[in-house]
Automatic annotation (TrEMBL):
Designated gene of the protein: argS
Compartment annotation: Cytoplasm
UniProt protein name: Arginine--tRNA ligase
Keywords: Aminoacyl-tRNA synthetase, ATP-binding, Cytoplasm, Ligase, Nucleotide-binding, Protein biosynthesis
Motif placement: 'HIGH' region: 122-132
Enzyme class: ligase
PANTHER family recorded: ARGININE--TRNA LIGASE, CYTOPLASMIC, ARGINYL-TRNA SYNTHETASE
Length: 578
C-alpha cells in the first residue's frame, strides 16, 4: 500500500544519487501532480543550475538512471526539462487492491505525539454562538483525524467558568433559587439568565455590592460560595452537553479543563515572572512588555497579568495553561482552535512563557485560527433584532430544512426513517460548511447553499456514499464481499477512480501535519465527482463481463469505505440511504 507520489519521489531521488553522485542523493526531486501525465518531476531544472548544464541533458541523465519500470508505463522529457511520469495500470490496480486489504485505507501511522487540543471553550451562563460552533466542529475534526493518525489527543475544553461576572451570576442564582424556572434557563437559554443578572447588577446598587463581595469570597475559596458556583457550572454543563450531543462531537465532561482549573496557579505565575524580571509594575498593574509589540504611536502594548485591583485576567490564566500543557501534559504540539482575533493575545502569552522557560524547544503551541461566520449582510451572524443567534435554534432549523428536502426526494420512506436521515443531513450540512472552507477564512452562513445536493457540501458527499450503498443493495452484494474482488483497469474512468483512491491516506496525513480539515473535504469532493464520471462510463452491475463487474464492485467498495471513513474523521454521519 503506497502513496504514488512518495514512491516516485524515492525512485527519482535514487536516480539523482546514481547519476550525479552521493551529494545529490537527498536533492528534492520536486514531484507534482501533472496535467499531462500522472505526475511530473521537476528536479532537473534546479539541478541544471547547480551542475552548470542544460536542463534537458540533466533530465535525460536522470531517466537513464531511473529504475521505475515496475510502476511507470512511460517516462517522458518535456518542455525545458520536466519529467512526465505515467503510472502503469497494473501497478495502480495492485495498489488499489492492497488498499482494500488495509483497514487504515492507506493512512500511515505517524510518530505518536502528545497533542492537547483546546477547542469549543464556551463561556458559562452565556449563549454559545456560531463562533463557538465553528471551533467545536473544526477542533473535533482535528481531534478525530489526529487520533486516527496515531497521536495521543488530549481534549481540553477551556470553558469560561471563572472571573468577575460570577459574582453577579451566583447572587442571581441565590435570589431565584436553584430549582426555579429562572435557574432552568441556564440549561436552555443561558444568555437570558446572564442578561437578567446583568440587569439587576446595573439597576441595583445593593445587588451590585453583593455581587462584588461574592467575587471576593469566590476568589478566597469560601466553601459556601464554591458550592453555589458548582451548581451554576452543573446547570451550564447540561446546556453544553445538549449542544454537543446534537452535534455529535466527541467532547465529554472528562474533557472540561476550564479557567477555574488554573486559579491556584495564577499567583505563582505572577510571582515567577516578577522574579525573572519579565513582569514589571506599570500604572498600578503588573505587566509584561515584549519587543515588537507596539500599538499606535509606537507605544508598547503590555500583557497585563495582574490588574491594579489585584485581579487576574484572561492572559494570566492562559500563561498558567500553556505551562501546564507543556509540563504536565508533555505536549509536542498544543493546538488552540480559537477565533482569529485572539492571535495577538496568544502570541504574547506564548512568547512570555517561552522566555520564562516554561515551554521547551520540543513543544510547539499553534493557533488554529477560526474565521468569522457572517450573515448575508457581510457582518457577524446575528438575529434580525441584533441579538446573537441561538445555537440550538440554528441547528433545529437546519434539521427542519433538511426534512423538507428528504420528504421531497424520498416520499417512499416511512416518516421515522425520513426524520432520522433529516437529522444526519441537517447537522452534517452545518458541520461540513464549517469544515469545507479553510478554517481561517470568513464565510457567509447560508442554509440553501450548505443543504444543496450539488457542490462541495455535506449532503452531496452523504449522497455519494448512499448511492454506492444502493448499488450494493440493488446488486444483492455485500460491500465486504465485493471488497474481496480482483481489480483490473481498462477504462480511463476506472484508472482515474483507482488513482484517486490512493490519495486518501496521503491527504489524511497532510491534514494531520497542516491542521487543515478542508483539504480532506476537497479530496472527498473530488472523489465523489470522479465517481459520477465513473458511473457514466462504466456500468457496474450490468458490466459486460463477470471480471469487470467484480472489479468495478471492488472499486465501489473501496470508494464507499473511504467516503465513510473520511466523513467520520470530519464528524459527519454517513446515512444508509438518502
Ligand atoms: N472562552 C473563550 C471565548 O469564548 C475561548 C477560550 C479559548 N482558549 C484559551 N485557552 N484561551 O472566547
Amino acid at each position: 500500500m503506497a502513496d504514488p507520489q512518495e514512491i516516485l519521489a524515492q525512485r527519482v531521488q535514487s536516480a539523482l544519487g546514481a547519476a550525479f553522485g552521493p551529494e545529490f542523493a537527498d536533492a528534492d526531486p520536486v514531484i507534482r501532480p501533472s496535467q499531462f501525465a500522472d505526475f511530473q518531476a521537476n528536479a532537473a531544472l534546479a539541478l541544471a543550475k547547480r551542475l552548470g548544464r542544460k536542463p534537458r541533458e540533466v533530465a535525460a541523465q536522470i531517466v537513464e538512471h531511473l529504475d521505475a519500470d515496475d510502476l511507470c508505463r512511460e517516462v517522458e522529457i518535456s518542455g525545458p526539462g520536466f519529467l512526465n511520469l505515467t503510472l502503469r495500470d497494473d501497478w495502480i490496480a495492485a495498489q488499489a487492491r492492497a488498499l482494500l486489504d488495509d483497514a487504515r485505507l492507506g493512512t500511515p501511522l505517524q510518530r505518536r505525539q502528545n497533542i492537547p487540543i483546546d477547542y469549543s471553550a464556551p463561556n458559562v451562563a452565556k449563549e454559545m454562538h456560531v463562533g463557538h460552533l465553528r471551533t467545536t466542529v473544526v477542533g473535533d475534526a482535528l481531534a478525530r483525524t489526529l487520533e486516527f493518525l496515531g497521536h495521543n489527543v488530549i481534549r481540553q475544553n477551556h470553558v469560561g467558568d471563572w472571573g468577575t461576572p460570577f459574582g453577579m451570576l451566583i447572587e442571581h442564582l441565590l435570589d431565584v433559587g436553584d430549582t426555579s424556572p429562572e435557574a432552568e434557563l441556564l440549561k436552555s437559554d443561558p444568555n437570558a439568565f446572564y442578561q437578567a443578572a446583568k440587569a439587576k447588577f446595573d439597576g441595583s446598587e445593593e445587588f451590585a455590592e453583593r455581587a462584588r463581595k461574592r467575587v471576593v469570597s469566590l476568589q478566597a475559596g469560601d466553601e459556601g460560595t464554591l458550592e453555589i458556583w458548582r451548581e451554576l457550572i452543573e446547570l451550564s454543563k447540561a446546556y453544553f452537553n445538549k449542544v454537543y450531543s446534537t452535534l455529535e462531537v466527541t467532547l465529554t465532561d472528562g474533557d472540561l479543563a476550564g479557567e477555574s482549573m488554573y486559579n491556584d496557579m495564577l499567583e505563582g505565575v505572577c510571582q515567577e515572572l516578577e522574579d525573572l524580571g519579565l513582569a514589571v509594575m506599570s500604572e498600578g498593574a503588573l505587566c509584561v512588555f515584549l519587543d515588537g509589540y507596539t500599538g499606535r504611536e509606537g507605544k508598547p502594548v503590555p500583557l497585563i497579568i495582574r490588574k491594579s485591583d489585584g485581579g487576574y485576567g484572561y492572559a494570566t490564566t492562559d500563561l498558567a495553561t500553556i505551562r501546564y500543557r507543556a509540563r504536565e501534559l508533555e505536549a509536542d504540539r498544543v493546538l488552540y482552535v480559537v477565533g482569529a482575533p485572539q492571535n495577538l493575545h496568544f502570541r504574547m502569552v506564548w512568547e512570555t512563557a517561552r522566555k520564562a522557560g516554561w515551554v521547551p524547544e520540543g513543544t510547539e503551541p499553534i493557533h488554529v485560527q477560526i474565521g468569522n461566520v457572517l450573515g448575508s449582510d457581510g457582518k457577524i451572524l446575528r438575529t434580525r433584532s441584533g441579538k446573537p443567534i441561538r445555537l440550538m435554534e440554528l441547528l433545529d432549523e437546519a434539521v427542519q430544512r433538511a426534512s423538507a428536502v428528504v420528504e421531497e426526494n424520498r416520499p417512499d420512506l416511512d416518516a421515522g426513517t425520513r426524520a432520522h436521515i433529516a437529522r444526519e443531513v441537517g447537522i452534517g450540512a452545518v458541520k461540513y460548511a464549517d469544515l469545507s472552507v479553510s478554517h481561517d477564512t470568513e464565510y457567509v452562513f447560508d442554509f440553501d447553499r450548505m443543504l444543496a445536493l450539488t457542490g462541495n457540501t455535506g449532503p452531496y458527499l452523504q449522497y455519494a456514499q448512499a448511492r454506492l450503498r444502493s448499488i450494493f443493495r440493488k446488486g444483492g452484494v455485500a460491500p465486504e464481499e465485493a471488497a474481496a474482488g480482483a481489480i483490473t483497469i481498462g477504462e480511463k474512468a476506472e484508472r482515474d477512480l483507482a488513482l484517486r483512491l490512493l490519495g486518501f491516506g496521503p491527504t489524511v496525513a497532510l491534514v494531520g501535519d497542516n491542521l487543515e480539515p478542508h483539504r480532506l473535504c476537497g479530496y472527498l469532493f473530488d472523489l465523489a465527482q470522479e465517481l459520477t464520471t465513473f458511473y457514466e462510463h462504466c456500468p457496474v452491475l450490468t458490466a459486460d463481463t463477470e471480471e469487470r463487474r467484480a472489479s468495478r464492485l471492488a472499486l465501489c467498495a473501496a470508494a464507499l469505505r473511504i467516503l465513510v471513513q473520511g466523513l467520520d474523521l470530519l464528524g459527519v454521519r454517513a446515512p444508509e440511504q438518502m
